[in-house]
Automatic annotation (TrEMBL):
Pfam family for this entry, one: Mur_ligase_C
GO biological process: cell division; cell wall organization; peptidoglycan biosynthetic process; regulation of cell shape
A GO molecular-function annotation: ATP binding
Family: Belongs to the MurCDEF family.
A GO CC annotation given for this chain: cytoplasm
Name of the molecule in the record: UDP-N-acetylmuramoylalanine--D-glutamate ligase
Keyword line: ATP-binding, Cell cycle, Cell division, Cell shape, Cell wall biogenesis/degradation, Cytoplasm, Ligase, Nucleotide-binding, Peptidoglycan synthesis
InterPro entries reported for this sequence: Mur-like_cat_sf (IPR036565), Mur_ligase_C (IPR004101), Mur_ligase_C_dom_sf (IPR036615), Mur_ligase_cen (IPR013221), MurD (IPR005762)
Catalytic reactions of this protein: UDP-N-acetyl-alpha-D-muramoyl-L-alanine + D-glutamate + ATP = UDP-N-acetyl-alpha-D-muramoyl-L-alanyl-D-glutamate + ADP + phosphate + H(+)
Residues of the signal peptide: none
Organism: Buchnera aphidicola (Aphis aurantii)
Intracellular or extracellular location(s): Cytoplasm
Pathway(s) the chain acts in: Cell wall biogenesis; peptidoglycan biosynthesis
Length: 438
C-alpha cells in the first residue's frame, strides 16, 4: 500500500532524535511539517533544519487541531487530553515506527519486553551479520528507525518500547516477540498494568510468526490463529535445562548450546540467548553461526556488567535496571558469601517496590537509596536501608565499609531522569567512581 502525504498538514511532536528523523523524512519527500516540543529548551533544537516552524513549552492546541496527521515521539504520552480530543475529531496520530513500517521493503523482526530487548536485538544483529545479511537495527535502542531507510538492508530489527507501540497500525513483522511483561511505566498509563500489557502484546497483531513466552502469555495462544513458536517452560519448543554444573539451551529435546561455557553471565542472559536462537532458526540462519555469536557474546554495557574486581570485591553496573523486576533478577544472579551493597533509587514511575521486600529481608545486604524516590523506597526494608541524596554520596559511604568477598551492585530499579540525562550517564558515573574508590 502506498501512502500519500503531500497536501496534508503534518505536525510532529517532540524535538528529539525521533522528531528530527521525522522532519528529515518529510523534507526528502518535499513536504515541510511543523514541530512542537513541551520543553522550552529541547536537546536537539540545534539540529532542526532552517525554515521549519516550531513552538516550544506547550502543546499548541490550534496547531494540533488543524493538523491532518500527527507523528508523536515516544517521550510524549498519547493520553494527554488534547491528543485524545484530536483523535475523537478524526485526526490521524501515528508513531515514527508506523511511518517506517509503511516504507520498509525488507523483512522486520520486532522485539519488545520489559527487560532484555537491547540484548536480544544486538544478539540477532550479530548473528545476521555473521550470516552475511545487511542489517538495520533501530528503535528504542537509540537509533531512529526512519534513518535505517537511508541504506539498503536485507533485514530490519526493531527494538520497541511500549511508548513506540502505542501508535502503530500496520507494522507487519516477519517475527515478533514479547520477551516478558513486568510492572513498568505505570505513571504513563491511566488504566495501569492491564493497559501496559495490552500495548506490549499488540506487537503480535500483524506478525507472520509469533514467539510466545509460555511462562507469561500462554493465554494469548488461544485467541489467535497464527504460527507460534514457544519458549519459557520445559514444555516449550525452546527451553533451558540445568544438568549438574552445566546449563543447556534446548530445542525439541535436543541440546544446542552449553551456556555455562560461554561468556554470558546470569540466567536472564541465558534466556535472551534462547530467544535469539529461536529467532535465528526461524530466519534459517546457519546454526553454527548462531552458536558462534552466542558463545562469545559479552553483556552489553550497563546491563549486569562487572566493571571492576579489586581486593576480591566485585563492582557490578546494572544501570539499565529501570524497573523493579530487573533489580530482582539482578539480585537472583548474585552468588556471594559476602555482603551485597545495593544502590537503589531514582524516579520509580509509580512502581510498587514492596515486591522486593521478601527478597531483601532474606539476603545479606545493605541498601543505599538515593534520588527522587529514594526516601520512600528506603522504608520498604528500613533495618537494612539508608537514604542519601545522590549516587556519589552513597558510593563514597560504601567504599569505606566494603570488604573482601562483597559485591557492590548498582541496580536502581528506577528511571535516571531525576538526576541524570539517561541510564548511560548514571552507569558511567558508577564505573568512574568504582575505579577511583576501590
Amino acid at each position: 500500500m502506498s501512502y500519500k502525504y503531500s497536501g496534508k498538514k503534518i505536525l510532529i511532536l517532540g524535538i528529539g532524535l525521533t522528531g528530527i528523523s521525522c522532519i528529515n523524512f518529510f523534507l526528502k519527500k518535499g513536504i515541510t511539517p511543523k514541530i512542537i516540543d513541551e520543553s522550552k529548551n529541547p536537546d536537539c533544537l540545534y539540529k532542526l533544519p532552517k525554515n521549519i516552524q516550531y513552538k516550544l513549552g506547550i502543546l499548541e492546541k490550534k496547531w494540533i487541531l488543524e493538523s491532518d496527521l500527527i507523528i508523536i515521539s515516544p517521550g510524549i504520552s498519547s493520553f494527554k487530553p488534547i491528543l485524545i480530543e484530536a483523535k475523537i475529531l478524526g485526526i490521524e496520530i501515528i508513531s515514527d515506527i508506523e511511518l517506517f513500517s509503511r516504507e520498509a521493503k525488507a523483512p522486520i523482526i520486532s522485539i519488545t519486553g520489559t527487560n532484555g530487548k537491547s540484548t536480544v536485538a544486538t544478539m540477532i544483529k550479530n548473528i545476521a551479520e555473521q550470516s552475511e545479511y545487511k542489517v538495520g537495527l533501530g528503535g528504542n535502542i537509540g537509533f531512529p528507525a526512519l534513518e535505517m531507510l537511508e541504506k539498503k538492508n536485507d533485514l530490519y530489527i526493531l527494538e520497541l518500547s511500549s511508548f513506540q507501540l502505542e501508535n502503530i497500525i500496520s507494522l507487519k513483522s516477519k517475527i515478533a516477540v514479547v520477551l516478558n511483561i513486568k510492572e513498568d511505566h505505570l505513571d504513563r498509563y491511566p488504566k495501569g498494568f492491564k493497559q501496559y500489557k495490552k500495548i506490549k502484546l499488540s506487537i503480535y497483531n500483524n506478525a507472520e510468526t509469533c514467539l510466545i513466552n509460555l511462562k507469561e502469555n500462554n493465554f494469548f495462544l488461544k485467541k489467535q490463529n497464527k504460527k507460534y513458536i514457544t519458549f519459557g517452560t520445559n514444555n516449550s519448543d525452546y527451553y533451558i535445562n540445568n544438568e549438574k554444573s552445566n546449563i543447556f539451551l534446548y530445542y525439541k529435546n535436543k541440546k544446542v548450546l552449553d551456556v555455562s561455557k560461554t561468556s554470558l553471565y546470569g540466567y536472564q542472559n541465558y534466556n535472551n540467548a534462547l530467544v535469539s536462537l529461536a529467532i535465528a532458526d526461524v530466519m534459517n540462519f546457519p546454526r553454527d553461526k548462531s552458536k558462534k555469536i552466542l558463545s562469545t557474546f559479552i553483556n552489553l554495557p550497563h546491563r549486569f556488567q562487572i566493571v571492576r574486581r579489586c581486593n576480591n570485591i566485585s563492582w557490578i553496573n546494572d544501570s539499565k535496571s529501570t524497573n523493579v523486576n530487573s533489580t530482582q533478577i539482578a539480585l537472583e544472579n548474585i552468588n556471594t558469601q559476602g555482603t551485597i551493597w545495593l544502590l537503589l533509587g531514582g524516579d520509580k514511575k509509580s512502581a510498587n517496590f514492596n515486591i522486593l521486600k521478601n527478597c531483601l529481608e532474606k539476603l545479606k545486604i545493605r541498601i543505599y537509596c538515593f534520588g527522587k524516590d529514594g526516601m520512600n523506597i528506603s522504608k520498604i526494608c528500613q533495618k537494612k536501608s539508608i537514604y542519601v541524596h545522590d549516587l556519589k554520596t552513597a558510593m563514597i559511604l560504601i567504599s569505606k565499609k566494603v570488604k573482601s568477598g562483597d559485591v557492590v551492585l548498582l541496580s536502581p530499579g528506577c528511571s535516571s531522569k531525576d538526576q541524570f540525562n539517561n541510564f548511560e550517564e548514571r552507569g558511567n558515573l558508577f564505573i568512574t567512581l568504582s575505579k577511583e574508590l576501590s
